[in-house]
Amino acid sequence: MKRSFLFVSVTILFALNGASCQSQSARNNETAQAQTNIGNGQPNPKDCSPLETRKPNASNQKPAFPEQTRACGIKTTTAFEVKVLAKGLEKPWAVEPLSDGALLVTEKPGRMRIVSVSGQISKPIAGLPAVDYGGQGGLLDVALSPDFDKSRKIFWSFTEARKGGNATSVASGILSADRTRLENVKIIFRALPVHDGRHHFGSRLTFGPDGFLYVTLGERSDIEIRPQAQEMNSHMGKILRLTPEGTSAPGNPFAGKKDVMPEIWTVGHRNVQAAAFDQNGQFWIVEMGPQGGDELNLIQKGKNYGWPLVSFGEEYSGEPIQGSVTDKAGFERPVYYWDPVIAPSGAQFYSGKAFPEWKGNLFVGALRDQKLVRLKIENNKVVGEEHLLTERSQRIRDVKEGPDGALYLVTDETKGELLKIVPKQ
Question: 305 to each of 238, 250, 354, how far by Cα in Å?
Fold first, then answer.
């Protein structure tokens, strides 16, 4: 993906003539400095080596600032071990720790199970509506209501077959006291429009400090529907903010505007399968980009994150993304991007006591690169990156912190595993 000749020419001309437009000049100077420091994707030297050394897919593209890609490698000093808590889960997609140590797990074909502290896998929980399983679709994320210990209410996302194709839906229900079935099941939200496809359903569910439900939605991938990530009368390629009843949450930025979906919180996303709030209440997502364009984004109300008009990377064919640039006024820059990609799925900011050195770090599952990624973030910039569990060669689909401070992960395999990371004794 290349900038237009006109944009590059104007930028160079302004630099040569000392143009004094302060806001644009600051951005151009920052970008130019980053390019001077980084060259072909290498970071500004800070007495460290970049963790990523592979050749980038889009080698002609340059970051907008030095910390935007290829961070310094860091290494965990605390010895830890990985325990296989359960085996034989079919394509697990999400794991949600419960306060008593048990774990709620979804399987993409349409089953939800409880895994006990000892690793015993329950029979499928009864009462789920039918899912449209296939490709990237099926039973996807699950999230506990903020008052779960009292209400036993849970929320889940899934691919629902509808006339003309399918789309992401969100349902809620009450987990029975014996945890064998769901009661009072309601489909509280249905994304529109329907599309006949099997890709980019997004579907992470996260409750914010405000008590509202944040839902990430993909733009469904196909060329004909991809532009809807920028269209306000579509849910595709958006992050939504809902009440627990599934309606538009009060204070949403576009509510009341003509021909705009009122649930929209942010615009211009490709396929978000990783989302988490940090210790300061800030909302972060890790977005599956095109080839060479996975992004870490700090989400802010009403902002546009660019896809498909602004993006790093290229099409899977190796061709540029038509009409796209890597940086443009009016669109949010990613805090960080990966080229080559990691295929991010699942995210968790660590806040536990088991690993003090991980406090405040962001953990991200990697499907394509088959590892667990740890990011150290300071002042909203990535200052270090570590790749864990690389020796296991497993696709990490989700990662969550348990009440015991352990990290729990599920692997995206036909016979998937539930893993537990604890300090080594």
Answer: 9, 22, 35
